[in-house]
């Protein structure tokens, strides 16, 4: 009985907080826009009983999904989001790995402090932090003023409202999600393995490539997912820092919902986004499982 | 046929492979190795023996290049090693913790060092297979380290360090996790490898029997210092101090006051009013100084009646018998409260054994059976 509960609590959680909302969104994505509350038809007429439900089902269709393929705004937004998410994941990895590495190398008594510093930004509102980047990156922002003062540039740089600003924003925001899993993998790494590698003829650098990197692979993968997934649907950062020039699916989604009040299309966008995320994750897990089975 | 005895340490013309010169190693204020000077020769099988924490691993790690020497010098083939990184030393080490790469299979672990040598593929394969055969791991080549047993892991670590055929091989407790049979086989395998390849071995062991079997010389360490270095039989038969005698094998220690008796013998007065024990020794003791006789249990004979010939004999009562299969150890209490251990070979069946608990027996030993020690 106890085991039953232990296993089922997470499933109930998933069911209530993921599957049910997903089904609702999916249902809306099959509906048509309407000037009503809620702003779509059909709705189930419970008073008509079974006939009402059948009537409801017969009115559902895939129109909105077809529409997504017809207007090239959508697939361009998907592609651009994928690109931005992928590039920022790589950038975050490149910034995060050395930080995680030096944290893991730091003397034991320093580590809790460093860890605190990494998660400290979470203590202020995410919005405030993004707004402050506007203050830093703007034409009259701190960065431009500083660069002008040092004489490295003579004209202020246009960083705000470019993809660069979006990259900076995403890397900054999601860095802790990259650092923490990598750090926890590196912290567990047994230093004698590196000594063994050196003993067997590796230089420091090749020991790093052949031992440290493979053994932190899981941290790298986890961190990359934790950055890539939210970055793909990111809405606030491209809106505030990217300006009109940056096309991202999160922004499109928001506009469909709140500007156009086209809930069915917005839902279709959301469903496709979810599939886009879930399919690679499932493929990846399959692959992992296979390699684990190979090990047996 | 005359067999030349392998004893380069006795030849002043011989150049040592490894020289520790007044080496001190400190961790903070803790001294792990204390002003140690020692030569180790090519083709030696040098065993380090000592209690936990005495600095054996630290010595190895300095040789391999993982610890810097605080004071003094380590020379390898005459060259100062201070500035040479581990990957440029012709030294391989088998780690006490094995340090196998968890992400690589057994095969890849063994091949790791060979790949760094840019060996041709066919040669590399052959070498790895040879190592697998040697350590009887062929069946586990594809497994990852977490999928094999502790003893198998130990053999992988051994195979990995052997694979590169280094000039100097450092083995930190290489056989501790193996069962007795496999341990003995591997010991002989190691000696065989050593004979074939001419590799110099430095081996750490907790098992004094093992050091006796494989070593050309044994160094007994304590608190960062080497107390005695000698061939296994010398260490066993002529320990330099009580510490060494006690550390290697079982021993009876009898404390007393020495008085000269004859040419090179002493009488050790071990108890007021009792017949003193006599012993021969090359040492010179001053008259009336405190001295100890250390006698191995197997050098003491047990008999029903007083033997006529033996110079040292005493009557006692059996208080305990430890049956060890091929041997029995009798714990015999002699007047004065001392308990002496005497060991005899069990040539007869248990049921026909001649002595039992509470029996009164005579213990006897010869003049040269024990060593006379000053401390
Ligand atoms: N990195 C280190 N920092 C501080 N002290 C150390 C360090 N490495 C070893 N020591 C200390 O040095 C002493 C010798 O350690 P070492 O590992 O050489 O012992 P050992 O003889 O190999 O013992 P064992 O038989 O248990 O393996 C120990 O007291 C140990 O605590
Ligand atoms: Mg040790």
Largest sheet of chain B: 6 strands, mixed
Tell me the number of strands of chain A.
Answer: 2
Name the structural class of chain A: mainly alpha
How much helical structure, as a percent, in the residues of chain B? 10-25%
Q: In the CATH hierarchy, what is the architecture of the largest domain in chain B at level 2?
A: 3-Layer(aba) Sandwich
Radius of gyration of chain B: 25 Å
Helix- and strand-based class of chain B? alpha+beta
**Could you estimate the helical fraction of the residues of chain A in percent?**
over 70%
Q: Going across the biggest sheet of chain A, name each strand in turn.
A: 1-2
Total strands of chain B: 20
* Distance between the amino and carboxyl termini of chain A: 32 Å
Low-confidence stretches of chain B: none
Query: Which chain pair has the greatest contact?
Result: A-B, 20 and 26 residues
Strand % of chain A is: under 5%
Attribute tags:
heterodimer; A: 296 residues; mainly alpha; MetI-like fold; B: alpha+beta; Rossmann fold; OB fold (Dihydrolipoamide Acetyltransferase, E2P); 2 domains; binds adenosine-5'-triphosphate; ATP-binding (chain B); ATP binding (chain B)
Can you describe this structure?
Chain B: Part of the ABC transporter complex PotABCD involved in spermidine/putrescine import. Responsible for energy coupling to the transport system. Chain B: Belongs to the ABC transporter superfamily. Spermidine/putrescine importer (TC 3.A.1.11.1) family. Chain B: This is Spermidine/putrescine import ATP-binding protein PotA. Chain B: One of its GO terms (molecular function) is ATP hydrolysis activity. The complex is a heterodimer of chains A (296) and B (375). Chain A has one domain: MetI-like fold (Orthogonal Bundle), CATH 1.10.3720. In chain A, 76% of the residues lie in helices and 1% in strands. Chain A has a two-stranded antiparallel ribbon with strand order 1-2. With 296 residues, chain A is mainly alpha-helical. Chain B has 375 residues and is α+β, with helices and mostly antiparallel strands. Chain B has two domains: 238 residues, Rossmann fold (3-Layer(aba) Sandwich), CATH 3.40.50.300; 124 residues, RNA polymerase II/Efflux pump adaptor protein, barrel-sandwich hybrid domain (OB fold (Dihydrolipoamide Acetyltransferase, E2P), Beta Barrel). A six-stranded mixed sheet of chain B has the order 6-7-8-3-9-10, sandwiched between helices. A five-stranded antiparallel sheet of chain B has the order 13-12-11-14-20. The mean pLDDT of chain B is 89. The site of adenosine-5'-triphosphate has 12 residues of chain B, from strand 2 and helix 1.
């Amino acid at each position: 009985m106890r085991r039953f509960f232990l296993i089922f609590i997470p499933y109930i959680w998933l069911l209530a907080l993921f599957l049910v909302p997903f089904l609702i969104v999916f249902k809306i994505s099959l509906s048509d826009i309407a000037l009503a509350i809620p702003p779509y038809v059909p709705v189930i007429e419970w008073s008509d009983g079974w006939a009402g439900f059948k009537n409801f089902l017969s009115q559902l269709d895939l129109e909105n999904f077809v529409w997504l393929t017809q207007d090239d705004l959508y697939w361009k937004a998907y592609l651009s989001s994928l690109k931005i998410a992928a590039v920022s994941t790589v950038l975050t990895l490149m910034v995060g790995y050395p930080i995680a590495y030096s944290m893991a190398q730091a003397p034991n008594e320093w580590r809790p402090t460093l860890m605190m510093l990494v998660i400290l930004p979470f203590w202020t509102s995410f919005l405030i932090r993004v707004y402050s980047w506007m203050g830093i990156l703007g034409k009259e922002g701190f960065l431009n003023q500083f660069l002008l003062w040092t004489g490295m540039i003579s004209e202020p740089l246009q960083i705000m409202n470019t993809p660069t600003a979006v990259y900076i924003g995403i890397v900054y925001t999601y860095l802790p999600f990259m650092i923490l899993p990598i750090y926890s993998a590196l912290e567990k790494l047994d230093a004698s393995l590196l000594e063994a590698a050196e003993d067997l003829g590796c230089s420091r650098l090749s020991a790093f490539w052949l031992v440290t990197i493979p053994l932190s692979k899981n941290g790298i993968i986890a961190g990359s997912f934790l950055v890539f997934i939210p970055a793909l649907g990111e809405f606030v950062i491209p809106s505030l820092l990217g300006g009109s020039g940056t096309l991202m699916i999160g922004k499109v989604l928001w506009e469909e919902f709140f500007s156009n009040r086209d809930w069915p299309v917005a839902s279709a966008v959301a469903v496709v986004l979810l599939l886009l995320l879930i399919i690679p994750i499932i493929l990846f897990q399959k692959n992992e499982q296979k390699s684990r089975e190979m090990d047996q | 046929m005359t067999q030349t005895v392998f004893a380069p340490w006795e030849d002043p013309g011989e150049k040592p492979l490894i020289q520790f010169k007044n080496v001190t190693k400190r961790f903070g204020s803790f001294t792990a190795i204390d002003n140690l000077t020692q030569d180790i020769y090519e083709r030696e099988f040098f065993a380090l023996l000592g209690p936990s924490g005495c600095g054996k691993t630290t010595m190895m790690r300095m040789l391999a290049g993982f610890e810097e020497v605080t004071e003094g010098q380590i020379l390898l083939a005459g060259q100062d090693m201070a500035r040479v990184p581990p990957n440029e030393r012709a030294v391989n080490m088998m780690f006490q913790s094995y340090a196998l790469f968890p992400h690589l299979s057994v095969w890849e672990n063994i091949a790791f060092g060979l790949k760094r040598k840019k060996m041709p593929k066919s040669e590399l394969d052959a070498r790895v297979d040879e190592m697998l055969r040697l350590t009887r791991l062929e069946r586990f080549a594809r497994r990852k380290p977490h999928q094999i047993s502790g003893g198998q892991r130990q053999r992988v670590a051994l195979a990995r360090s052997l694979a590169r055929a280094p000039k100097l091989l450092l083995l930190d407790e290489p056989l501790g996790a193996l069962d007795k049979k496999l341990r003995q086989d591997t010991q002989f395998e190691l000696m065989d490898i050593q004979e074939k390849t001419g590799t110099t071995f430095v081996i750490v062991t907790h098992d004094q029997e093992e050091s006796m079997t494989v070593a050309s010389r044994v160094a007994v360490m304590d608190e960062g210092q080497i107390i005695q270095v000698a061939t296994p039989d010398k260490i066993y038969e002529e320990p330099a101090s009580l510490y060494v005698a006690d550390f290697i094998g079982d021993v009876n220690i009898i404390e007393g006051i020495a008085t000269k008796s004859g040419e090179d013998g002493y009488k050790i007065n071990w108890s007021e009013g009792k017949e003193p024990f006599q012993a021969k020794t090359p040492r010179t003791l001053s008259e009336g100084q405190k001295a100890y006789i250390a006698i191995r249990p197997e050098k003491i004979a047990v008999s029903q009646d007083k033997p006529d010939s033996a110079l040292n004999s005493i009557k006692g009562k059996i208080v305990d018998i430890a049956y060890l299969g091929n041997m029995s150890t009798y714990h015999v209490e002699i007047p004065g409260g001392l308990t002496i251990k005497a060991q005899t070979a069990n040539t007869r069946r248990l049921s026909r054994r001649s002595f039992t608990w509470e029996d009164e027996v005579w213990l006897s030993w010869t003049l040269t059976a024990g060593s006379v020690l000053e401390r």
